[in-house]
Amino acid sequence: MAMLPCFFFFLLPVRCPAQVWVTESPDNSGKEVGEFSSMAIDGSGALHLAYWDASTNAPRGQLIYAYRAAHDKRWSQMVIDRDGTFVSMAVDAMNRPHLVYNSRRENGLHYAHWDGKTWHRAVIDDGHTNYLTSIQIDAAGHPKISYYLYHLPTGEYSLHLKYAYSDGKQWYIQTVDPRMHTGKMNSLALTSQGDPFISYSFLGPGDMLYAWGHGSEWEFGSADSSRTENTHLSFGNVAVMDVKDHPSIAYFDNTKNTVKYAAWNGTRWEREVVDHLVSLDSLDQISLKMDRAGASHVAFYDAGLGILKYAVRRADGWHIETVDHDGNVGLRPTLVLNRDGDPYISYYDVSNQSIRVAHREAHSVAGSLR
User: Fold this and answer.
1) Residue whose C-alpha is closest to residue 86's, from 59, 61, 69, 67
2) Cα separation, 240 vs 225, whole angstroms
3) Percent of the chain at pLDDT exceeding 90
4) Smallest Cα–Cα separation from 354: which of 102, 75, 97?
5) Contact partners, residue 64, CB within 8 Å, separation at least 6
6) What CATH code is carried by the domain that includes residue 284?
7) Could you tell me if residue 153 is inside a domain?
C-alpha cells in the first residue's frame, strides 16, 4: 500500500498520515481461545470470524462465531457448536456466513450456515475427516468444499482428497484423488462459472498438485515438482482464481523453508520465491487473496522468528513487511481485503494463546523539513 504524499513548507512541523498495523483482541475470555481461525469479509465491509475455544470455560471445547460491523470497534460472539477444528468460512451474496469444520472426535465433516435468524448445522460426510478444509460459495449461493478423509470406519488410514457440493437440495460427495497421502493440505477456488480448482499436497513425493473440475471430469496436474527442485513442497497451500480464471497458489517449500508462489499464465506455471523463513510449522497455512487490480496479497507466519508477515506482489516484485512481532504470533493466518484493498488478518497468538486481528490504519506522524 502506497504511503500518502506529504508536503512541507518552511520549517514548520506538519502532520502526515502513515499507514501502520493495528492489532486487536476479538475475544478476551481466556487462554486457549482462537486456534483454527477463519475470517471473511462481506459486501458491507463487516468482518466474520470463526475459531476454536479450548479454554477452561469450555471444558469440551466449542466453536465460536464473532461478528464486527464495518467501522465498528466491538465484536459480538455466539457459540455455533461444541466442536470445531480446522475451520474454513465464506460469506454468500446476502452477507451470510457458511462454515465447514472437523471434529477432534473425527465424527464427520461438519457444515453450518446462518439464515439470518439461526444457525443450521449438518454432518455432510460421516467419514473420519481431519486436517484442512476449504469452502467457497458459488454465484447461486451453493457451498462447495474440499477436505481430507483421514480414517476409514474400520480405523485404517484412508488419507485422500475429497470434494462435496450442494445444489440447494442435497449434497454430493466425490473422491477426487484416491491415492494415499493426497490432500492433507488443500484449498478450493472457483472459476467464474463455479468450476472447482483444488490445490493439494502429495506428502509422499512432495509435489504441489492440483485438480481442476470440468463438468463431471477432473483434470490433474502439478504446479511445482519436488523432483525438479530436489525438495518437498505443498505444505500450507492456498489457491485463488483471477478474473481470467487463471489460478495462483501460495505454498511452503518444506525443505528450503521458503514461501513460494505459482501462477498459471494460460500456458504454463510461473513460479517464484516470496520470502525465506527461519522455520515453519507443519500444520500452518498461508493465506492468499487477490485485489481488484489483480495484485496478490499473502499473509504468513515465520515459526522460527515467531512473527506474522505480509507481502504484496507488485510490478517490481514482492514487498514484504512485518505485521506483528509481539511475542510468538501469527500461526494459521487468514487474510481478507475490503473493497479498497485494505488488508485484515486473523491469526493465533501462540504466546498468549489467544485470537488476534490486525488491520491497516492511518495515523498522523510529525515531520519537518530538513
Assistant:
1) 61
2) 19
3) 83
4) 75
5) 27, 33, 50, 51, 52, 53, 77, 78, 79, 80
6) 2.120.10.70
7) yes
Name which of 10, 68, 13 is nearest 344 in CA terms: 68
Which tens digit of pLDDT belongs to each residue from 3-12?
A: 434 433 333 4
Number of domains in the chain: 1
168 phi and psi angles, rounded to 5 deg: 95, -15
CA angle 230, 235, 237 (to 5 degrees): 115
Instruction: Report the alpha-carbon distance of residue 93 to residue 12 in Å, rounded.
Output: 50
Give residue 317's region: left, alpha or beta (phi > 0; psi -120 to 50).
left
Q: Take residue 48 and report the three cell numbers written for it.
A: 466474520
> Which triple of cell numbers denotes residue 66?
464473532
* CB contact at 8 A, 237 and 222: no
Instruction: Please say if the pLDDT value at position 264 is more than 50.
Output: yes
Instruction: Report yes or no on 330 lying in a domain.
Output: yes
Bridge partners (DSSP) of residue 11 are none
> 357 near 335, Cβ under 8 Å?
no
Q: How many CB atoms lie within 10 A of CB 176?
A: 20
Domain boundaries, position 246: 22-367
How much is the pLDDT for 71? 87
- Antiparallel, parallel or unpaired: β 207-214 and 97-102: unpaired
pLDDT given at position 125? 96
Percent of the chain, pLDDT > 70? Answer: 92
In the predicted structure, residue 162 carries a pLDDT above the cut 60? yes
Question: What is the structure's pLDDT at 366?
Answer: 39
The residue behind cell 492489532 is 23
> Does 4 reside within a domain?
no
Is 239 a domain residue? Answer: yes
CA distance linking residue 318 with residue 214, whole number of Å: 33
Q: What is the DSSP letter of 58?
A: S
State the Cα–Cα distance between residues 254 and 275, nearest whole angstrom.
13
Q: Which residues contact 6 (CB under 8 A, 6 or more apart)?
A: 14, 16, 367
* Residue 23 amino acid letter: T
pTM over 0.90: yes
